[in-house]
Specification:
The protein is 27% helix and 14% strand. It has 465 residues and is an alpha+beta fold.
């Protein structure tokens, strides 16, 4: 196996093992729990598996959910328009609706090759060395922190993004081969001149959105207690917290969302997506996403101030928070149960924590639930193979938040493909595992050393999450 591949192997599985090894009885694999979202679990295996509300919503809450669903899924339009409730798109943007990137509340997809310029579902984060006044990445001086490749009439898109793929073949210890690919990024037709020589570019794939209300309800003390920044226990895993500004007060709060845990609340995540992805102002981001040196953008007609009013915004946030988690399937299968044991033996739950407990929440089905999200919400060094070299608050250029694994088995049903990792480079679970390095090296090596049947059982387990 090449060094490129071997480094990639490790991190995913170290991330998963600890909880699997610790939870459950002697005769029950610890990571077998059909109700992955506790009482916020819904049994669905069709294309709408990520789009169901949690049970128990009252009539007012169900109305909030349905209205939020509508504003999440329907396109916003340019101003002026007769559709006053949904105008204000742009001036520059990446998508016309939340669902453009999160189709059926699921994941985005990266471009197929350099000739495919349809980048819905994947965007480029930009920054330059330094720290912003808020303590985060310093935006690129002319293009900000995100490249918008679309614009309203009369405004020029910021640029065109092209992504090609560079592949390399590796092999497991038994000689079976696999292919890894990494993105090669190119930009052209840049509206304000070339990007700075010191620009840092990181492609980001849109993840599925269900379950975020449960993740938000995990007590901060629980996340902090799991952190081990100095690897005091000597297990090779040193998860760290990220601290980010509260969107209302600016005070430091725990980062939970985003590929680098760079957003602290569902509300902040929704507001940031409206602003950055669609150019829609909100109560949290009231200013248009324009550079002051771009007169056509500054002069573009807006859709009100803010363009999504507080009541509507709150309903979109509520919709995101109350999307239910799909149940585990086929958990009685001998292959699945064997795979759950492999998940523990190899070391995956070290970061992909299988058991968490939520605290009090305003929605009963989110409150005080035992859940299996397969994440510790911490930052982990994933090694040079996955590094983007772009710091984000406390997260270094090699660190990433452990992504939840619940629902990944249904992504192909919902979205047709299963692209994983922060940039969608991994097309299969094997690729995703083999892309991990750094803190997960020991677990990755252990996965590579499994025989074909053991690897197949572990993948069978991941398929039912």
């Amino acid at each position: 196996m090449t060094g490129f591949a071997r480094r990639a192997v490790a991190v995913v599985f170290v991330a998963g093992l600890i909880v699997s090894a610790c939870a459950g009885s002697d005769d029950e694999p610890a990571a077998i729990d059909p109700k992955l979202g506790g009482e916020a679990t819904r049994s669905a295996t069709n294309r709408n598996a990520f789009g169901l509300p949690v049970k128990g919503l009252d009539d007012d809450q169900r109305l909030d959910f349905e209205v939020g669903d509508s504003f999440f899924n329907q396109n916003w339009v340019t101003s002026p328009a007769s559709t006053k409730a949904r105008d204000g798109l742009g001036p520059t943007f990446n998508a016309q609706a939340c669902s453009s990137c999160h189709g059926l509340d699921g994941r985005g997809a990266p471009p197929i090759d350099a000739d495919d310029t349809s980048t819905l579902g994947l965007l480029l984060r930009l920054s330059v060395p330094g720290t912003s006044p808020a303590g985060g990445p310093m935006p690129e001086p002319m293009y900000g922190d995100q490249l918008q490749d679309r614009a309203v009439p009369g405004v020029k898109p910021e640029g065109i993004v092209a992504i090609d793929w560079v592949s390399e073949t590796g092999s497991f210890d038994d000689g079976a081969t696999y292919e890894l690919r990494r993105p090669k990024i190119d930009t052209s037709d840049l509206a304000h001149g070339p990007l700075g020589d010191d620009v840092m570019i990181s492609p980001r794939l849109a993840p599925q959105v269900m379950g975020v209300g449960l993740l938000e309800a995990i007590p901060e003390a629980s996340v902090r207690a799991a952190a081990d920044p100095d690897d005091a226990d000597g297990d090779g895993i040193s998860g760290r917290i990220n601290l980010v500004p509260d969107p209302h007060t600016g005070d430091e709060i725990l980062g939970r969302f985003g590929w680098k845990a760079n957003v602290g609340t569902v509300e902040g995540q929704v507001a940031g997506a409206f602003h950055g992805d669609m150019g829609i102002t909100s109560p949290l981001f009231p200013d248009e996403n324009c550079h002051s040196d771009d007169p056509s953008c500054v002069a573009a007609i807006g859709g009100g101030s803010p363009e999504i009013p507080q009541e509507t915004f709150d309903r979109v946030v509520f919709y995101n928070r109350t999307l239910a988690v799909p149940a585990m399937r086929d958990f009685e299968s001998p292959h699945v149960r064997s795979g759950a044991e492999q998940f523990g033996t190899v070391g995956c739950a070290g970061c992909h924590t299988t058991s968490q407990t939520t605290g009090p929440a305003d929605v009963p089905m989110l409150s005080e639930q035992t859940i299996s999200p397969f994440t510790d919400l911490l930052l982990h060094d994933m090694g040079p193979g996955l590094a983007d070299g772009r710091p984000d608050f406390a997260a270094s250029g090699t660190e990433w938040r452990t992504p939840p694994l619940w629902g990944l088995g249904l992504v192909p049903v919902v979205n047709g493909e299963r692209f994983m990792m922060h940039d969608g480079r991994a097309r299969t679970f094997e690729e995703a595992i083999m892309w991990h390095g750094g803190e997960a090296q020991a677990a990755a090596d252990a996965f590579a050393a499994l025989d074909a049947d053991e690897r197949a059982d572990l993948i069978a387990y991941l398929e039912v999450l």
